[in-house]
Amino acid sequence: MSETTVFSGVSRVDGRRADQLRPIRFQNHIAPHATGSTLIEWGQTRVICAVTVEESVPRWMKEQKVEGGWITAEYSMLPYATLGRKQRDISKLKLDGRTVEIQRLIGRSLRAALDLSKLGSRTLWVDCDVLQADGGTRTASISGAYVALGLAIRKLLAEGKLTQTPLSAPVAAVSVGVVASQPLLDLNYVEDSGAEVDMNVVMNGSGEFIELQASGEESTFGDVHLAELLKLGRRGIRDLLALQQQAISA
């Protein structure tokens, strides 16, 4: 049985096949003052991803005499992104653990896409702001942030601030999981909240893993399910990488 049909027999709450992504659309230049930006609409999840440039590097790089530049990320879910209002982190005077985890994941993922030595002595700030959440906000943030990053690098090259691209490999992320004993690609909120196993897959264009985050939410899982989830993840990443390149080139 071929890879294109092995997961196709399952019907989901939104009518997708088990191996099918939700509809994805990029709306570029959504933040005109950013160097590069896009609004990624992934099903009912919507995230604005924007890259701005600071012509300096963090103090630790100067103190340790580290050459090149840096890229770092901030993530925020706006209060009205979910059905129930989410309190802003600033009102609690600290970031919650989930926010810290996600923005570190975004930063690690994007650093894997760059040769920082070619970036020059500058910092790229990546802001991911969730307007609407329906599952997969961290994977949408990573995948959208790469598009915003690609647009920002194109602008820096066009302005002569870079003489060669620091981009080394495209990066995308997707969720997979086991729901009612069935491996599924790209979980929406309903599926994610009822998943027995949940996994986020971050990969580059060479088919290499950057990060895997997996947990048995309500059960354990074995080698068979793991292999099926990774196959689904690779399929989703392949489709995402094509969509990202179309968006950057548009």
What is the succession of H and E elements?
A: EEEHEHHEHEEHEEH
Q: Looking across the biggest beta sheet, what order are the strands in? A: 1-2-3-5-4
Overall geometric form = globular
DSSP summary, beta strand count = 9
Number of domains: 1
Unreliable stretches covering 5 or more consecutive residues? 1-8
Number of helices: 6
Our estimate of the beta-strand percent is 25-35%
Name of the CATH superfamily: GHMP Kinase, N-terminal domain
* Overall CATH class: Alpha Beta
User: Structural class of the secondary elements?
Assistant: alpha+beta
Note down, in words, how this protein is organized.
- With 250 residues, the protein is an alpha+beta fold.
- The chain has one domain: Ribosomal Protein S5, domain 2 (2-Layer Sandwich), CATH 3.30.230.
- It has six helices and nine strands; from the N terminus they run E-E-E-H-E-H-H-E-H-E-E-H-E-E-H.
- The longest helix is centred in the C-terminal third of the chain and has 27 residues.
- The N terminus is likely disordered.
Task: Kindly summarize this structure in a few lines.
This protein is α+β, with helices and mostly antiparallel strands and 250 residues long.
Topology:
Layout: E1 24-28, E2 36-42, E3 45-54, H1 59-63, E4 70-77, H2 89-92, H3 97-111, E5 123-132, H4 137-158, E6 171-179, E7 182-185, H5 189-193, E8 197-204, E9 209-216, H6 223-249
Parallel strand pairs: 4-5
Antiparallel strand pairs: 1-2, 2-3, 3-5, 6-7, 6-8, 8-9
Helix pairs in contact: 3-4, 4-6
